[in-house]
Amino acid sequence: MPGPGESLGGRYRLEDRIAAGGMGEVWRATDTVLDRPVAVKVLQAGTAGESSFRRRFEHEARVMAALRHPGVAAVYDFGSTGEGAFLVMARIDGQSLDQRLGERGRLSPAETMAVVAQAARALHAAHQAGIVHRDVTPGNLIIEPDGNVVLVDFGVARSAASETLTGARNVVGTACYMAPEQVSKRAVGPAADLYALGAVAYHCLTGAPPFTGGDAVTIALRHVDEEPRPLPAAIPAPVRALVERALAKDPGARAPSAAAMAIAATDAAGGDSAVRAALLATESVTAPIPRRLPATVPDQPPADDFPDGPSRWLPVLTLVLSALAVLLATFTAADLLGWFRGTPSAPVSSPATPPSPAGVPSPSRSQSASASATRRSPPATRPRSPARTSASPSDSVSSEPSADEPSGDSPSPPPADPSTEAG
């Protein structure tokens, strides 16, 4: 068997061993080409040397590589060395169900049903691809930090509760969770995985597998001939019924499919298994990243309340027309008030008038002077011109002299003596 630091296929560098079993070992490794963590399962030299087992292992590796399911560990590569074959899988970080049970002893019915529902969905994906896992155990169920359960094929860790059959030819599995037909070397189908998952649920609820004691062969034979002890009465009846049906000796008496078993586990838990899976989260191992909730707007109708089709644009069209009407009314009012009129043009100058006779003021000059006096008030102390008399402040326009009156600025003659007129 390989050791730490060795490279498989010139690409996968082994770091430390995760688990060991009758078929081989599982190593924590690094893909040196893509620089990512992986898990590498290395077959024992004797097992890899059997051509029939090697062909079956290679076939399942190819089929598993096509699976895409959050509850199934992805398979990346398959290769061989001079000593045997190896399988490269995604490395799942988390805590195995075996470790969880070792710490706590047992799980609650709700937690147990969350494990069963998720594992059954993963098994259904494998069964649809034509793969029977044959080794569903607490050691092959990894609980990720967010509570998601992933089915892996890491082999079986050596412990008193999970001994691996190595002496019987063509019998693959773990004695404590092996289906009767698998022990009897009969045809093994998807129902064998359902039996094993039922045995895992029994272990979660009671703290021990259905049968214990003795060597691996003795434990395996008890699955064929004996009935496990009844589950405690404190466990809810739907949960007890699901486990008892999964542990039926006859494969036909079990659930018709892994999907049906997942639905039954969800119903037995009394809610959505995705919500129940939160009970399995291990925040002490890895704190989950909090999800950012979308901001809520008060009194905002849901998206479904908006009509579809052309009518959905009616509110927008109404708003645009209203804005145009307000804009038109504003321009009309501004035009009436003269906001948009041009600046007043300069007054047109009148044609030049001929000069007036001496002493006779020009009408245009008199009117201009009067208008200037009207526009500005002359100071009270301003001296008067001796050459002309300014218009009275009360007169806006000076009158034109008649023909009978003397013109000019000369003083008027004194009035005649009445005595002289009489004579």
Structure commentary:
The protein is 35% helix and 11% strand. It is α+β, with helices and mostly antiparallel strands and 423 residues long. Among the domains are: 1-91, Phosphorylase Kinase, domain 1, CATH 3.30.200; 94-287, Transferase(Phosphotransferase) domain 1 (Transferase(Phosphotransferase), domain 1, Orthogonal Bundle), CATH 1.10.510. The strands form two sheets. Strands 1-2-3-4-6-5 form a six-stranded antiparallel beta sheet. A three-stranded antiparallel beta sheet has the order 7-8-9. α4 (109-128) runs antiparallel to α6 (190-206) and α6 (190-206) packs across α8 (237-246). The longest helix has 23 residues, at 314-336. Residues 154-171, 285-306, 345-411 and 416-423 have low confidence and may be disordered.
Class per helix and strand makeup? alpha+beta
Approximate strand percentage:
5-15%
User: At the third CATH level, what is the topology name of the domain at 94-287?
Assistant: Transferase(Phosphotransferase), domain 1
CATH class of the domain at 94-287, please?
Mainly Alpha
Order of helices and strands: EEEEHHEEEHHEEHHHHHHHHH
Q: Extract low-pLDDT stretches.
A: 154-171, 285-306, 345-411, 416-423
Helicity level? 25-40%
Strand order of the largest sheet: 1-2-3-4-6-5
Number of strands: 9
